[in-house]
Amino acid sequence: SAQLDNQAISILKENDLGGYTIPTKGLYPYQWNWDSAFVALGFATFNMNRAWEEIELLFEGQWDDGMVPHIIFRKDDPSYFPGPSVWGTTNPKIPTSGHSQPPVAATVVRRLFEQDTSAAGKEKIKSLFPKLLAWHRWYHTYRDPEGHGVIAIMHPWESGRDNLPDWDNAASHVDISDIGEYTRKDTSHVNPEMRPKKIDYDRYLAIVKFGRDNNWDPKIVAEQCPFFVADPGNTFILLRADRDLLAMAEALGETEAAEELKGWIALTEKGIAKLWNEEKQAFVTYDLRNDVLGDGISSASFLAPYAGIREEKYINPTREHFDRIAAKVNYTMPSYDPDHPLFESMRYWRGPVWGIINYLIATGFAELGDTARAERLRTDTVALIEKSDFAEYFDPITGEGAGGNSFSWTSAIWLTWAT
Ligand code: DGY
Asked: How many C-beta atoms surround the C-beta of residue 259 within 10 A?
């Protein structure tokens, strides 16, 4: 509706701190990596220059080794923990966090490029292309150091799906005896029942301490980080982004880069077999440190179509799981399997629905020609926003909003897709 369109636009404008957008006031007062990518799609519906600027400012935080951090701390804000001093990163340009987040940016940049046919658009992508390529190369080098064709995360925050039950076992091996005292801020903004638990935060901080003690050296991280788990989320998102970057390489005549990208794509298309749980008939996590294949089905298990995977042995069971879960909840797609004992409908990534994930899954189904499932995701997202406004996430059973409100990426997804 026009009223929700206007509301979404004003949320983006209010969360705009001058060229970059914070996810929501209080809870997340800095620029977050994948939030900004989705936000750019929202801006593109009414201000193309502002959309490009969001991505350009994100890349101001890029490290010399190619990594694009998950948070960019432009100014200190005491309402957030852990802030820049806890991360202790030494990259010279701007204070940032020390690891990355799901690499959706290349996919977004390709969409902006297709929408913006002006000469300026071509200039923007020319300058962003080598930065995106360097980031993807960093991911393939340091988060897949043995060349399995799957992408690992060194911290649950790197997946963007922070407290997914699938991280519990791997994170239980992290030594938390040395973390000291700390005070969370998130639980003063949001009902603690909707946030990760204390044990999760203890582990989050122990891994941050490991990174800080090792100066966030990605080679040391790959060899020794106590948490190193291959994620179907980051693997599928990067595979998709590699394909989008390849399309841009071809449009720009970047032949050498195109060959490099084709190599990564071929490797990952094979590598995803390592994430396939034959018994569950689903894509799951793989704990590379402890050599354990996961058994949980999460919203990322549905991203194979989005990644361009077409094999029936993968796609048919994916559709079956979708239908099983869709029959069980009122609103698709819960972040975790509602038939799993660890499902919690209101706790962050252990059950709630996230608009941006629905958009990614639906994009994949639509590209398969599977309009019915894509439409179910879209109409459910519309219904959630109509019922509960632009919340951070939603209860898949009751449709109640949870987490932060006046949320940027929920607004952006509304504008670019749901409306
Ligand atoms: C948080 O602070 O909860 C964020 O998700 C970390 O990126």
From this structure: 11
Ligand 1 atom with the smallest distance to the CA of 80 is 2
What pTM was estimated for this model as a whole?
Answer: 0.98
Is pLDDT at 92 greater than 80 in this prediction? no
Could you give the domains of the chain? 2-418 (1.50.10.10)
The pLDDT assigned to 226 comes to 98
Phi, psi (degrees; rounded to nearest 5) at 36:
-65, -35
> Taking CA 285 as the corner, what is the angle to CA 281 and CA 287, rounded to the nearest 5 degrees?
130
Paired tokens of 118 = 């002006």
162 is catalytic: yes
For 242, 367, 386, the CA distances from 105, given in Å and listed in that order, are: 10, 19, 28
Ligand 1 centre to CA of 163 (Å) is 10
- Residue 153: predicted pLDDT: 98
Q: In the structure encoding, which two tokens stand for residue 402, read together? A: 């949870």
Q: Which two tokens stand for residue 134?
A: 């360097």
The Cβ of residue 120 has, within 10 Å, a number of other Cβ atoms equal to: 11
- Active-site residue flag, 76: no
Alpha-carbon distance of 234 to 414, in angstroms, equals: 23
- DSSP secondary structure letter of residue 71: E
Query: Complex ipTM above 0.85?
Result: yes
Residue 419 confidence (pLDDT) above 90: no
- Residues paired with 96 in a beta bridge: 72
Is residue 93's pLDDT more than 90? no
Residue 8 structure tokens = 């979404």
Tell me the per-residue pLDDT of 218-269, one tens digit each, with 9 for 90 and over: 999 999 999 999 999 999 999 999 999 999 999 999 999 999 999 999 999 9
Pocket probe for ligand 1: among 155, 162, 350, the residue whose CB has the most ligand atoms within 8 Å is 162
Q: According to DSSP H, which parts of 192-302 are helical? A: 198-213, 218-224, 232-252, 255-271
**DSSP character for 415?**
I
Quick: pLDDT tens for 355-379: 999 999 999 999 999 999 999 999 9
DSSP state of 100: -
Name residue, tokens 């340091």.
142
- What is the rounded distance in angstroms from the CA atom of residue 151 to the CA atom of residue 192? 31
